Amino acid sequence: MDEPQQKVADIINSTTIAMMTHVTSDGRLTAHPMATQDADFTGTVLFIAERDSDKVRDLESDPRVNLAYSGNGSWVSLAGTASIVDDEARLRDLWSTFTDAWLTGGPENPNNILIEVQADSAEYWDAPGSSKTVRLANLVTSAVKGERAEGDNDVVDF
């Protein structure tokens, strides 16, 4: 994995919640918060969902998605293709108390499935500094000096 791909993986793994945007059956864009279950970062991200949900039906018709992650001064926008995966063993590995709070029946429930997103590309932005105070100081300094704020930005292909 090269350095930009690693940066994308690090931001996703430190953020965990994505806003998944997809196209609805009537052609509108809509977004749902989704808890990332796994990101192996050859470009694959996994989510758990219910087979009979509108979002799954929409993804079966038009699998194009965008995943947006934001947190701690870092952002990732990942474009890719979603597929529905029936894999009870993998569901069992990924299932947690958090998942139980949102979905019923556990990994044995045939209505619980995986949404696998294979990334085509991602763009990330990473502000300098690990704390909010450092990031704020950098923004104030750039504003006082009339300079653009420092930070990393790159487009990554998968």
TrEMBL record:
A Pfam entry, by short name: Pyrid_ox_like
General stress protein FMN-binding split barrel domain location: 4-148
Superkingdom of origin organism: Bacteria
UniProt xrefs under PANTHER family: PROTEIN BLI-3
Stated name of the protein: Pyridoxamine 5'-phosphate oxidase family protein
